[in-house]
Amino acid sequence: MVLSEIQVGKKVRIKNTDSVNELVQRRLLDLGIMEGSVLKIKRILPLGGPITIEARGQLIGIRRSEAKKIRVESVSTQ
Fold it and tell me: Coiled-coil stretches, from where to where (predicted)?
């Protein structure tokens, strides 16, 4: 599944970012977001707007077109 398909409040782990633009990959890496990182979807704006994620206590907005390219897996909440 991809990041853009996840519902608000769900936690996911990044599996693959290979199809994301290199510049976006670099920016995510600079923020500490890489394969294996756990994210939580905080907000999805309407009309194809960006997705707000929480990673390591920081909120980050990602274009929906980029979120469609980030492969993720569900993380069980314990």
Answer: none
What is the maximum alpha-carbon separation in the chain? 34
Taking the model in full, what pTM does it have?
A: 0.86
How close are the terminal C-alpha atoms of the chain, in Å? 21
Q: Give which of 47, 44, 24, 45 is closest to 34, Cα–Cα.
A: 24
Cα R_g (the chain), whole angstroms: 11
- Per-residue pLDDT in tens (0 to 9) along the chain, 78 residues: 999 999 999 999 999 999 999 999 999 999 999 999 999 999 999 998 999 999 989 999 999 999 999 999 998 765
CA distance 35 to 41: 16
* Residue 34 near residue 28 (C-beta atoms within 8 A): yes
